[in-house]
């Protein structure tokens, strides 16, 4: 019987598989950042051991960094300390750091792919759940906790049980104004925030194959939002074209040999999945979430479910969630006033996202009482945006283009949405307090967010798009 | 934080909410520490305290009737980010066991690596636990890791739970994964020699 893509990669990375034990899996690339690594380095110190393969770990500062005045010392003492610890730890243990001020600095899941560090067939981990982003290249990539970060630093391996396999097929073609973000929000709304727990998901089907690499990353990024361990997409010409020529991508003879291997990375036609789900792209309209977990989403023209539509057991959590959002069951969101627009995060802060938004807002201006933050995913994205004059389009539209980092995705730095305010956000989580204490989040695509920036309210972007 | 877990009889703190995510367990703005300690203070921070830091009277952890080393949560406990800080906060607040009818994957690993025992019970049994605590906030639960059961002491109702044998041994003896992985050094070096272009 054939193998799934996931199995091919996983099985090829097992160092030791003992009955009764989790597999010891070899990790090709390990990314670290300032928030989930200090305790891991401390652990190494306590044990008196070095980083086993320092060249296979790369560090950046992203979660906790300011997005204004990055050339100046970080004002907030605790954030500064965390970033300084990363500098100290990486230099002491010999790990390469793309810290503040470095031309490669950025959100860890943006820089790995853009630097050609992320490659098909790799195993990749990081102390951050959205490591699943890298799966877009046909890599097995997943988030880990700090104890596991320490395991990888110490041994370049991790102990894991093999997850089950799920295939999600999206057939057909997307409609106008519908982006890959809408595909993944739609899937999560259909199968819930825990619908893929215990699984590794492979995305397939015509609608997926047609997506650019950056759009594929958006899909894989949010695999965790349905509980999946990770998500991946078989590499193809689009993947190879994207990688070729990037900073750390293989070159010359290495490229040829790598390519030969990458072409073996697909699920065999007779491979068996533990579960297969199929969706039709034509059913997907621009999406928006209304609640406090990413499964609480719907088409932007729809109504929030009424209590009667829900199972009795689900009602208390549902009510609590809507109370937090100050929304009514059965209500519609179209026309709802928004206060903030955040375009950024490892889900949607790449150059294509910025281009798409710039194209859309060119010649338009934001609504008066809306604050619009655009936070590029990396220094390289920022530089590219400037080169293309995108920064000027944003300035004319009244959008603030800030410096790279996680920013209002998790609001660890000063970029917080004030209590009670509504933010339409291209990030990946709408949990209570995620964008600041008592802040209210609507997750959506960059286009839907940009449309809200212009009108000042939740808008069906399709109505603003030309023919 | 004790590394060994064997047997526990304790009252429990009920949080009957579904999809408790790691941002609720420990909000991101409290992740700035560089050690594993001290996170307990901010466990469920925004449910527990007002913006001006006064305790919210209606949250269970602010009600002195409820106490104990067992935290009982609704379905899909620990979803969201991979921050192990969530498990550290729970441990630092004095909990040794978390009970739910479903756990998010990464949280489960993080809990075990923090020597907290995540016990997955049936929806029905979870309901019974919540009811027992509702009837008597001091209701005792018994957790036996060796024999893999959890029991509501007053009624004698009992359910077995699954735990992987390797992790069970780790918890019973206080071993961690790194000890095991470090012992595989030879195999790891051997593996590295076998693969180049195919990673
Ligand atoms: S942008 Fe948000 S989700 Fe992505 S790595 Fe940063 S904090 Fe995590």
UniProtKB/TrEMBL annotation, chain A:
<comment type="similarity">
    <text>Belongs to the aconitase/IPM isomerase family. LeuC type 1 subfamily.</text>
</comment>
<keyword id="KW-0411">Iron-sulfur</keyword>
<comment type="function">
    <text>Catalyzes the isomerization between 2-isopropylmalate and 3-isopropylmalate, via the formation of 2-isopropylmaleate.</text>
</comment>
<dbReference type="GO" id="GO:0003861">
    <property type="term" value="F:3-isopropylmalate dehydratase activity"/>
</dbReference>
<dbReference type="InterPro" id="IPR033941">
    <property type="entry name" value="IPMI_cat"/>
</dbReference>
<keyword id="KW-0100">Branched-chain amino acid biosynthesis</keyword>
<feature type="binding site">
    <location>
        <position position="346"/>
    </location>
    <ligand>
        <name>[4Fe-4S] cluster</name>
    </ligand>
</feature>
<dbReference type="InterPro" id="IPR050067">
    <property type="entry name" value="IPM_dehydratase_rel_enz"/>
</dbReference>
<keyword id="KW-0432">Leucine biosynthesis</keyword>
<protein>
    <recommendedName>
        <fullName>3-isopropylmalate dehydratase large subunit</fullName>
        <ecNumber>4.2.1.33</ecNumber>
    </recommendedName>
</protein>
<feature type="binding site">
    <location>
        <position position="409"/>
    </location>
    <ligand>
        <name>[4Fe-4S] cluster</name>
    </ligand>
</feature>
<dbReference type="Pfam" id="PF00330">
    <property type="entry name" value="Aconitase"/>
</dbReference>
<dbReference type="InterPro" id="IPR015931">
    <property type="entry name" value="Acnase/IPM_dHydase_lsu_aba_1/3"/>
</dbReference>
<comment type="pathway">
    <text>Amino-acid biosynthesis; L-leucine biosynthesis; L-leucine from 3-methyl-2-oxobutanoate: step 2/4.</text>
</comment>
<dbReference type="InterPro" id="IPR036008">
    <property type="entry name" value="Aconitase_4Fe-4S_dom"/>
</dbReference>
<dbReference type="InterPro" id="IPR018136">
    <property type="entry name" value="Aconitase_4Fe-4S_BS"/>
</dbReference>
<keyword id="KW-0408">Iron</keyword>
<dbReference type="GO" id="GO:0046872">
    <property type="term" value="F:metal ion binding"/>
</dbReference>
<dbReference type="InterPro" id="IPR004430">
    <property type="entry name" value="3-IsopropMal_deHydase_lsu"/>
</dbReference>
<keyword id="KW-0004">4Fe-4S</keyword>
<feature type="domain" description="Aconitase/3-isopropylmalate dehydratase large subunit alpha/beta/alpha">
    <location>
        <begin position="7"/>
        <end position="456"/>
    </location>
</feature>
<dbReference type="InterPro" id="IPR001030">
    <property type="entry name" value="Acoase/IPM_deHydtase_lsu_aba"/>
</dbReference>
UniProtKB/TrEMBL annotation, chain B:
<comment type="function">
    <text>Catalyzes the isomerization between 2-isopropylmalate and 3-isopropylmalate, via the formation of 2-isopropylmaleate.</text>
</comment>
<dbReference type="InterPro" id="IPR004431">
    <property type="entry name" value="3-IsopropMal_deHydase_ssu"/>
</dbReference>
<dbReference type="InterPro" id="IPR033940">
    <property type="entry name" value="IPMI_Swivel"/>
</dbReference>
<protein>
    <recommendedName>
        <fullName>3-isopropylmalate dehydratase small subunit</fullName>
        <ecNumber>4.2.1.33</ecNumber>
    </recommendedName>
</protein>
<feature type="domain" description="Aconitase A/isopropylmalate dehydratase small subunit swivel">
    <location>
        <begin position="4"/>
        <end position="123"/>
    </location>
</feature>
<keyword id="KW-0432">Leucine biosynthesis</keyword>
<keyword id="KW-0100">Branched-chain amino acid biosynthesis</keyword>
<dbReference type="Pfam" id="PF00694">
    <property type="entry name" value="Aconitase_C"/>
</dbReference>
<dbReference type="InterPro" id="IPR000573">
    <property type="entry name" value="AconitaseA/IPMdHydase_ssu_swvl"/>
</dbReference>
<comment type="pathway">
    <text>Amino-acid biosynthesis; L-leucine biosynthesis; L-leucine from 3-methyl-2-oxobutanoate: step 2/4.</text>
</comment>
<dbReference type="InterPro" id="IPR015928">
    <property type="entry name" value="Aconitase/3IPM_dehydase_swvl"/>
</dbReference>
<dbReference type="GO" id="GO:0003861">
    <property type="term" value="F:3-isopropylmalate dehydratase activity"/>
</dbReference>
<dbReference type="GO" id="GO:0009316">
    <property type="term" value="C:3-isopropylmalate dehydratase complex"/>
</dbReference>
<dbReference type="GO" id="GO:0009098">
    <property type="term" value="P:L-leucine biosynthetic process"/>
</dbReference>
<comment type="similarity">
    <text>Belongs to the LeuD family. LeuD type 1 subfamily.</text>
</comment>
<keyword id="KW-0456">Lyase</keyword>
<dbReference type="InterPro" id="IPR050075">
    <property type="entry name" value="LeuD"/>
</dbReference>
<keyword id="KW-0028">Amino-acid biosynthesis</keyword>
<comment type="subunit">
    <text>Heterodimer of LeuC and LeuD.</text>
</comment>
């Amino acid at each position: 019987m054939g193998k799934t893509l996931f199995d091919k990669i996983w099985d090829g990375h097992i160092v030791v598989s003992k009955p009764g034990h989790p597999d010891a899996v070899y990790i090709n690339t390990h990314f670290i950042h300032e928030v989930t690594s200090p305790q891991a380095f401390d652990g190494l110190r306590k044990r008196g051991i070095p980083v086993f393969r320092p060249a296979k770990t790369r560090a950046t500062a992203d979660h906790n960094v300011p997005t204004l005045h990055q050339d100046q010392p970080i004002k907030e003492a605790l954030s500064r300390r965390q970033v300084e610890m990363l500098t100290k730890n990486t230099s002491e243990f010999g790990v390469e750091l793309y810290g503040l001020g470095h031309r490669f600095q950025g959100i860890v899941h943006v820089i790995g792919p853009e630097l050609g560090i992320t490659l098909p067939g790799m195993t990749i981990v990081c102390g951050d759940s959205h490591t699943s982003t890298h799966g877009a290249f046909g890599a097995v990539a997943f988030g880990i906790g700090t104890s596991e970060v320490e395991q990888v630093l110490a041994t370049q391996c991790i102990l894991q049980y093999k997850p089950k396999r799920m295939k999600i097929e999206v057939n057909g073609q997307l409609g106008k104004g519908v982006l890959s973000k809408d595909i993944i929000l739609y899937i999560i709304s259909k199968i819930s925030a825990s619908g893929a727990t215990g699984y590794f998901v492979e995305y397939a089907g015509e609608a997926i194959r047609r997506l650019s690499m950056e759009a594929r990353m958006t899909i894989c990024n949010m695999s965790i939002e349905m509980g999946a361990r990770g998500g991946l997409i078989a590499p193809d010409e689009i993947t190879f074209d994207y990688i070729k020529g990037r900073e750390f991508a293989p070159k010359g003879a290495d490229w040829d040999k790598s390519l030969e291997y990458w072409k073996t990375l697909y699920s065999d036609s007779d491979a068996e999945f533990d579960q297969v789900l199929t969706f039709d792209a034509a059913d997907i309209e621009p999406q928006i979430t209304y609640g406090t977990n990413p499964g609480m989403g719907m088409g932007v023209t729809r109504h929030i479910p009424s209590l009667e539509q829900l199972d009795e057991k689900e009602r208390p959590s549902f009510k609590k969630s809507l109370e937090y959002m100050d929304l009514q069951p059965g209500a519609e969101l179209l026309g709802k006033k928004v206060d903030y627009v955040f375009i950024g995060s490892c889900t949607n802060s790449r150059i294509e996202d910025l281009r798409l938004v710039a194209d859309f807002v060119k010649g338009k201006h934001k609504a008066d009482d809306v604050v619009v933050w655009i936070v590029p995913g990396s220094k390289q994205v920022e530089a590219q945006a400037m080169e293309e004059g995108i920064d000027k389009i944003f300035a004319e539209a009244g959008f603030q283009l800030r410096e790279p980092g996680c920013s209002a995705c998790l609001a660890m730095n000063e970029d917080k949405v004030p209590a009670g305010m509504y933010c339409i956000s291209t990030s990946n989580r709408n949990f209570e307090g995620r964008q600041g204490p008592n802040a209210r989040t609507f997750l959506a695509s960059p286009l839907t967010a940009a449309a809200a920036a212009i009108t000042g309210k939740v808008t069906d972007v399709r109505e603003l798009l030309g023919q | 934080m004790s590394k060994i877990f064997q047997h526990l009889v304790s009252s429990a703190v009920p949080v009957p909410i579904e999809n408790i995510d790691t941002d609720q367990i420990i909000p991101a703005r409290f992740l700035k520490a560089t050690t594993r300690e001290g996170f307990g203070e901010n466990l469920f921070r925004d449910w527990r305290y007002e913006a001006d830091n006064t305790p919210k009277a209606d949250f269970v952890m602010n009600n002195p009737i409820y106490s104990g080393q067992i935290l009982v949560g609704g379905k899909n406990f620990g979803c969201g980010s991979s921050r192990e800080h969530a498990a550290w906060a729970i441990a630092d607040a004095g909990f040794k066991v978390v009970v739910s009818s479903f756990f998010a994957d990464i949280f489960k690993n993080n809990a075990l690596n923090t020597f907290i025992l995540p016990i997955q019970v049936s929806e029905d049994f979870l309901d019974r636990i919540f009811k027992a605590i509702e009837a008597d906030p001091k209701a005792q639960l018994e957790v036996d890791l060796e024999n893999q059961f959890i029991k509501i002491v007053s009624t004698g109702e009992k359910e077995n739970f699954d735990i992987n044998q390797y992790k069970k041994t780790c918890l019973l003896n206080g071993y961690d994964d790194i000890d095991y992985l470090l012992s595989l050094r030879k195999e790891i070096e051997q593996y590295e020699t076998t693969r180049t272009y195919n990673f």
